[in-house]
Design brief:
4 helices; about 35% strand; about 210 residues; alpha+beta; seven-stranded mixed beta barrel
Length: about 210
């Protein structure tokens, strides 16, 4: 079945504007999900919110949202105030710079989308995709959607483009938070480890086969 676009965007940098269609690059794997049931009679359970202070169940229409600025101290926001805080959605991906594809660690990668040329955009789209592929570069830009501004990477994939949504540094935990003990290794042990890696190294075709297994 042909893929269906989820939005229309415009890639812009300098005086160039490329109309594109946005497609989800991933799909759910159809994992098995379970519901919580009452063991006594097998009926579904529903979630309830309980006031910590009064110990009573609070209905949804009685709830408000608040930001905790100090221990147990909150600033309460109305729905209108929350809406005003949201980033205005745009239909443009504004490219700000170009960097090597390998410059960003994959730990910062979030959601991925495919981009395809929209009406009148085939030639500039092809020029951008091919230029990025042949130069080994990717484009970094900004995109506002779902009430938030995102940093995105446009990188070439075969003859097309992938828009990779990126995480901000504050959203990625530093590895030095882990307790990784130091261990001394001998040169012979290191050489053996390298040989084992070389034996198990896959080429591009093997990688594709692994991902489609």
């Amino acid at each position: 079945m042909a893929a269906r676009s989820i939005a229309s965007l415009t890639i812009s940098f300098g005086l160039v504007a490329i109309p594109v269609k946005l497609y989800s690059a991933t799909q759910a794997a159809g994992a098995i999900s379970f519901n919580l049931l009452h063991a006594k009679d097998g009926s579904r359970l529903k979630q309830q919110y309980v006031c910590i202070k009064e110990g009573v169940v609070v209905e949804r229409e009685e709830m408000v949202k608040g930001y905790e600025f100090a221990k147990d101290q909150y600033v309460i926001f109305s729905p209108d105030e929350l809406k005003a805080l949201e980033e205005t959605a745009t239909h443009a991906v504004d490219i700000t710079e170009f960097i090597p594809v390998s410059a960003i660690d994959p730990v910062y990668f979030d959601k991925a989308y495919y981009l395809a040329p929209d009406k009148g955009g085939a030639k500039p789209y092809t020029l951008l995709a091919r230029s990025l592929r042949e130069s080994g570069l990717s484009a970094i830009g900004r995109w506002a959607a779902r009430g938030k501004q995102y940093i995105v990477m446009l990188r070439p994939l075969e003859d097309g483009l992938v828009m990779q949504q990126l995480l901000y540094a504050a959203e990625v935990r530093a590895i030095d938070e882990l307790d990784i003990p130091k261990a001394d290794v001998r040169e012979g042990e290191l050489q053996l480890a390298r040989k084992l890696i070389e034996v198990e190294t896959l080429d591009a075709n093997d990688v594709r086969a692994l991902l489609t297994a």
